Amino acid sequence: MVNEQQSLSRLNKRLRVCFSEDDNLRNLLDEQYFWSGQGFRGMLCLEVGNCLDIDPKIATEVALFTELLHNASLVHDDIIDRDEQRRGHPTIWKKYGPSKAILIGDLLIAKAFEIAMSSQTNSSIKVKWSSLLSQTVLHAVKGAMNELDFDLFSESKVFNRYYDMATLKTGSLFALPVGCLASVASMNPKDTLTLTKSFSDLAVAYQIRDDQADFYGNKHGRNITSDISNGRPNLYHLLSTNASHSSDFEQDIASYHSRLVSNATDGLTTFDKSLREFVDQRVLPFIQLDSSLAQKPRLRATV
Which of 50, 140, 148, 234 could bridge 227 with an S-S bond, Cβ 3.0-4.6 Å? Predict the structure, then answer.
């Protein structure tokens, strides 16, 4: 594996340069909101790039515009949910107001496209990246709209409806860098689809883990639960209030989560061993459920 700390440090420096070169983003260089995350998506991109034997400079470009788009999604999500904290710091809308926060999120999206199109890679790859970025933004927006329109009180096909929503909103942002790197590696369409679906499903598993932390008030950097109070489709809340699942909802979710992870890792069996080892060693621990939370009282249990 690549030297993770050094690679993330280089990526972080590139992000800071990107901010410093823009008149509006320059004022946000000291905002820990942008710099206190775990850098998981950037690390994922750099490691997958290494596994696919891609030039680290190119992989860093992909990680850079992926991180910009991810941060844009966080800024916009916080406005929609009216969350006042993220990563232990005030959210952008809370500090600067919703109007400015919307524009900052939009600017970060524009910057992601700018980085992709100014890369030193060949033109055909940049066109593919631009297409994947556009598709990702489209899917993420559709997923967010589905989240707002989610019928919290319907008891039919909860898992299917949740999966479709989370695949669009969360899965697309995990699949983006993988698809971009696959295009650089000239991977055939069938293998590209298999690879991106595996990472998309791992992202849905991560979303379930995030739901678990929110449901039990154990979310890092946030001192209150958010999903339930905002009426968002948190899988734990959906099933705990669903007559078909309420008695064993935690076990039902754990089983579903396990199947998602198993299907995703099964899809990686034909790829290089280094890629499978990276997923086993770095991705799976990041998305695993916390079994100890089942014994913890919930902060909120109703909308």
Answer: 234
What span, in angstroms and rounded, lies between the C-alpha atoms of 139 and 172? 7
Q: Are 189 and 183 in contact (CB under 8 A)?
A: no
Residue 49 to residue 66: CA distance in whole angstroms: 13
Is residue 170 packed enough to be buried (19+ CB in 10 Å), middle (13-18) or exposed (0-12)? Answer: buried
The reported pLDDT for the residue numbered 281 is 95
What confidence score (pLDDT) does residue 217 get? 83
Surface-to-core class of residue 261, CB atoms within 10 Å of its CB (0-12 exposed, 13-18 middle, 19+ buried): buried
Q: Is the pLDDT of residue 227 over 70?
A: no
pLDDT score for 301: 40
Q: Alpha-carbon distance 79 to 75, whole Å?
A: 7
Helical (H) or strand (E) element with 121: none
Non-local CB neighbours of 232 within 8 Å, separated by 6+ positions: 81, 147, 150, 226
Contact yes or no for 138/148 (Cβ under 8 A):
no
**Residue 210 near residue 287, CB atoms below 8 Å:** no
Where along the chain do its domains lie?
A: 4-295
Site of tokens 């791992």:
202
Tokens of 276: 């499978």
What is the topology classification, in CATH, of domain 4-295?
A: Farnesyl Diphosphate Synthase (1.10.600)
Residues with Cβ within 8 Å of 93's Cβ and at least 6 positions away in sequence, in order, are 75, 78, 79, 100, 101, 102
Long-range contacts of 266-274 (CB under 8 A, 24+ apart): 267/194, 267/195, 267/197, 267/198, 267/201, 268/195, 268/198, 270/191, 270/194, 271/51, 271/191, 271/195, 272/51, 272/52, 274/1, 274/50, 274/51
- State pLDDT tens for residues 121-133: 999 999 999 999 9
